[in-house]
Amino acid sequence: MTKPVRDDAWMLQEVMELPETVGALLISADGLVRAQTRSLGKDAADRIAAALSGLRSTAVSMGGMLPQPPVLRQTLLDFDTGFVLAIDAGEGTYLCAAATRTADVEQVGFRMHEVVAAMGREMVSAPRRDGGTAA
Q1: On the CB side of 118, how many CA atoms lie within 13 Å of its CA?
Q2: Taking the CB of the first residue and of the last residue of the chain, which one, N or C, has fewer CB atoms within 10 A?
């Protein structure tokens, strides 16, 4: 079992307790890592967070194929060696987890939704603001 790296990453432990779950991230919509598990490392977490932010943006655009404007709730990537799931975790925040091919991906997704429901507003990421002074 992988322990979280940062103090505010404790909520990721709930997801990591499932068999064959290998990593988890909490990211802001603009691709910044808020929390990560040790299994990812800082460079990998930063790279994955940026990619996921772009992927989510692309997925929202793909929703334009549907007859009514949709709200993207979940993204699932299916690889030959495993799965990566990403869900909304509050306004401007996403929870992402990776699991091996033998994991119960439905259970991983369910646990992720449970964690988000339990955390509520604490998982919201405010948009970044310009750090300059007002004129």
Answers
A1: 11
A2: C
Express each pLDDT in 28-38 by its tens digit. 988 999 999 98
103/47 Cα distance (integer angstroms): 24
pLDDT digits (tens, 9 = 90+) for 69-102: 888 888 999 999 999 999 998 888 899 999 999 9
Of 127, 103, 85, nearest to 18 by C-alpha is 103
Both structure tokens of 82: 């495993």
The class level of CATH for 7-123 reads alpha beta
- Find how far residue 95's CA is from the centre of its chain: 2
- Cβ neighbours of 105 (radius 10 Å): 21
- Domain range summary for the chain, segments of one domain joined by +: 7-123
The gap from C-alpha 127 to its chain's centroid, in whole angstroms, comes to 16
